[in-house]
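User: Okay, second chain of the day. Same drill as before: sequence in, structure tokens out.
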Amino acid sequence: MFWLKTRIVEGRNALENLKKEAKNHERVLILASNSMKKHGFLSKAEDYVREAGAEVFSITGLPAEPSVEVIEEFLPKVREFEPDLLVALGGGSVIDTTKALKVFYDAPGLDFEEIAFMDRFSRPKPVPKLKTKLIAIPSTSGAGSEVSAASVLKKGGIKYNIVTPEIAPEVAILDPRLPMTMPREVARNSGLDVLVHGIEAYTTRVANDFSDAMAIKAIKTVFAFIERSLEGDEKAREKMHYASTMAGIAFLNARLGLCHAMSHKAAWIGPHGLLNAIFLPYVIEFNAERSEYARKRYDEIARELNLKDWRELLQAIKELNERTGVPKLGELVDERTFMEKLEEMAEKAYHDGLIAFNPVEPTVEEIEKLYLEAYKGE
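Assistant: Same drill. Structure tokens below.
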């Protein structure tokens, strides 16, 4: 099955489309990143909503990582305003936070532990029908949250997922002016996240021809444009912005794998996209050495990039990481702290729901070994 709930509006000045989308709504709540406020895009969005004849209320100052605590903090403000339209203006964290707020605003009796995927063996309760429309306007190019049916929230330093079609945004507005505000490091981390999304979506057990098309296009775009994007090239930033959404559509349908499971459980170490970039080469080698299916799929990606096989793909990814300044894992965390948490991380990664879609099911010991290899840079 291939599924996409979200209507996508793209192009320069696409933010203005908010005027049309806000019509026939009375109260519009905008959750925005500080960056969008700083660069004037929040005030533009507020003006468009007012021009549509609706009342607008904005919340800024959201933390970098969405969490259950953040939802509990902002939910009373949302309930007090009683919006009939939610707008997420910012990066993946802002969009994920808005999705979660939608769940608990529309269905106030729900409990997080009951509806979240704590691990792949959990059976969460289904989220009921939600009524409030959600528009996602991403300002970064990596998460793909503007089209996905998942919200990733932290609790106790570990990331968990709420997964339901009910939180997939009704509309995604892709305005390439917004990602021009990203600092180089954010553009790198999010851009490499797009690459991992594409590669993992292409190689899962449930990938299909339609998700493959989106995944391959995203992968090729990253290799072609990420380095120019990091230099601030406007066209390259635009291409990377659209690639992020394409990769999001790919993993919405084909899911993700071991690399994401590992980064989710190592979230305390550093940014998600950066961790994905660090772990990817180790995961590719692990999968390829143990699965004919994985080798075949990696070989297909390689040929799309005019490379010979999965080994050349692996080398190309390592070289891209090096050229873009991706650090070694050992540069992000001291050895003592890492070793203290190693066993726990491996155990929790093994229980992550995405392991079920990886072409190879690893053991806890194999995941622990992969973490160690990545730490030592072997």
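The mean pLDDT is 95.

User: Thanks, on to the next one.
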